[in-house]
Amino acid sequence: MEIKLNTPLTEDKVTALKAGDRILLSGTIYTGRDAAHKRLIELLEKKEELPLNIKNEIIYYVGPSPAKPGTPIGSAGPTTSYRMDPYAPKLLDLGLKGMIGKGARNKEVIKSIKKNRAIYFGAIGGAAALIGKSITKSEIIAYEDLGAEAIRKIEVKDMPLIVIIDSEGNNLYEEGQKDYLKMNNR
């Protein structure tokens, strides 16, 4: 069963989700990769304002390809998430509720997900064209000089995701391995 989920993310929405849940996400989300994250943290260190309010928002780790005529965005597959691990805890502490990417997260990020009752979604790597089709609108809101890594505000409709790490720290990557090993040790 797939769960239809709309942004913004509230604590009630986040805590109802469990590792392994399949999601169809609709609403406004933001994009950003490591270069943009580095700039966001530099602003915070200088006590300056961020170019977006991240409270109850989701950041999708993506550097989309250029849009073809008549489309809001090109292919939009997920970036490997560990590249954002040095920056994620600080953003989660400011109210970021969700992150979308691919791959494992470090212990500090998982601890911060639990502390801040946030969530980490996985998007399917290799499905960039499919994911791009779920994006209905895209506009650059910060760091245009970064090209594909600029921060974008995007609208999504039924973006296919899976909950990898839920707000209690349950991790699908770890649970999946354990379940697999149990099945093969019978």
Automatic annotation (TrEMBL):
Record Gene3D superfamilies: Fe-S hydro-lyase, tartrate dehydratase beta-type, catalytic domain
Coiled coil residues, start to end: none
Segments forming domain Fe-S hydro-lyase tartrate dehydratase beta-type catalytic: 2-175
Signal peptide: none
Source organism, top-level taxon: Bacteria
InterPro entries: Fe-S_hydro-lyase_TtdB-typ_cat (IPR004647), Fe-S_hydroAse_TtdB_cat_sf (IPR036660)
Keywords for this protein: Lyase
PANTHER family to which the protein is assigned, alphabetical: L(+)-TARTRATE DEHYDRATASE SUBUNIT BETA (PTHR43351), L(+)-TARTRATE DEHYDRATASE SUBUNIT BETA-RELATED (PTHR43351:SF2)
Protein family membership: Belongs to the class-I fumarase family.
Protein name: Fe-S-containing hydro-lyase
Organism: Clostridium cibarium
